[in-house]
Amino acid sequence: MDTDHWLVFTGSTFNVSESSQVYEFYIVPRFQTTIVNMQRDLHRTSSQLNTVLQLIAETLKHLLERPNLNTFNASADCGNGTVGVSSVADQLRTELSRNKFDDRGYLSTGHFDITVSDAEGARHSGHWNISAGLTMSTELRRKFSPELLVANKSLIVGTEEAPPFTVLENNTWKGFCVDMLEELSLRMGFKYEIRRSVDNLWGAPNEDGSWNGLVGMAVRGEIDMAIGPISVTAERETAVDFTKPFMESAAGLLMMRFEDTTAKMFRTLMPFTVNVWLTLAGLVILIGLVFGLINKFSPIQATPDEKHPDRWIESMWDSFWVVLGSFMEQGAERFPHSIAGRVVLGLWWVFNILTAASYTASLAAFLTINMADIPINSISDLAQQSHILPLIKNGSNLYTLFQNAETPIQKKIYEMIQQAPIVLGNDNGMELVMSGPYALLTDREQLDLLAKVDCKNLVQAEEHFNNNGLGFFVREGSPILETLSNNIIKLMEAGLIHKWRRKWWSSTDVCSEEVAMTSVQSLKLDSTAGLFILYAVSTVLAFIILMGERAVNKLWPLCKAVVASRRTVEV
Length: 571
Fold this sequence. Notes:
Elements: E1 6-13, E2 23-28, E3 32-37, H1 46-64, E4 73-75, E5 82-84, H2 88-96, E6 111-118, E7 121-129, E8 133-136, H3 138-143, H4 146-150, E9 154-159, E10 167-169, E11 172-174, H5 176-188, E12 191-196, H6 213-219, E13 225-231, H7 234-237, E14 240-242, E15 247-256, H8 274-297, H9 316-327, H10 339-368, H11 379-383, E16 389-391, H12 397-403, H13 408-419, H14 426-435, E17 438-443, H15 444-450, E18 458-460, E19 465-475, H16 481-493, H17 496-504, H18 513-517, H19 525-570
Parallel strand pairs: 9-12, 9-13, 16-17
Antiparallel strand pairs: 1-6, 2-3, 4-5, 6-7, 7-8, 10-11, 13-19, 14-19, 15-17, 15-18, 15-19
């Protein structure tokens, strides 16, 4: 390979500390310059120091062995005058012995000068030290600009299908993130080839410490970057470098709507709870008793009325019948003759009007509106029951979150995940949700689109969790990270992110609030069967009472005759 530029590091001391970054520039084929981040936690062990020393020596050796490299002298501020390039590595070893270490064993001093050599000669173009970091001249920045490194290059981009972020149709990728990638390629001047994840996973650590999914492909050098709804996590940051987030997201739950079929036939009684019904029954008895006592002990007695002999309330049974008739909104056949009794009855009428209005309004809602009953509103609700099992795609951020659970709720969720079927994708998860007692857990943006499959029967939990940012990632130490992040920010400032969001999450693609919450339906027999059952029970009870009355009616005269005959005998 032929090139006209290369760099040499010279310095008074060599230093790599916990908070510092040392950059090595070297030329690789296709004129691609790689900036390698050599930040390491180096202790006083000779093996670690020798590793760094060997890396620098091998780099300089690679340059010195080039056939088109001319020998020259590079200035090194070592106090020993000018040294040759061939002795730079030896000089570095010498200078390492003069380094200072802190109490923890870290190197604490150091400075490097950057020298550029080309056909015009060698010249100082920058420096690096612990306090100021890397400083480069305008010329050097221009030569090694990340924009130039990626221009006219072909990048291998990895992804996995996750509508509407990434959609694969007829072997062609499209979607929200693909639109972003296309715009970035136009702005940065690179070409790209999209490859799907080899194991259909986004990336999670394996038991042996390696990575699967797209993260593993980046670590192995199989892809240059990855796109999609990739959650930015601290664990993934140890293996790859993330761009600035292009969207804030949170996780949610999607499940089938809940319908309580256990008491469906008695839905006509559901407007009031059992406690309310028992309270009303007790109130009828209490008011009947009070009403009867007032009429019995009132000094105002009824006057004889030959035309209406049954108009006035005379017995306790009459009082109970009037109170019950008023409660059922029936007209009263008898009236209290006292003012106190009429006050009690009047207030009872007002109470019954309000009670009947409340019952009627609630009954209409229960019978004609299919309420969006949500059995689970949060992961806490999910953990506190055992009927509905969570579904989470393997290799996802959520799977890792619950796998490394730190709270009792998260640990319980992970135990439930082990009992549920393995989910390889959203399509697989939706099939399970539609056919069984499962709840799919994934990004809220994906759930909005998945819910449209059946807006009337699918519902999302109201509470979201695991708020984080979504971003792309590149290989660790990639020189295009900064310019890629800057261009993503420019897309956001230009309103393109909002434009693509409206495109892929249009109003026709998600369930409207009206459809999602309610749907009017005709009444069916199973919803009104309770009325028929109550009437049938009351009819049977009436016949039983009738049989008792007939028996008493026949036996009572006989009993009276027997009693009378005994009295006659005794006399």
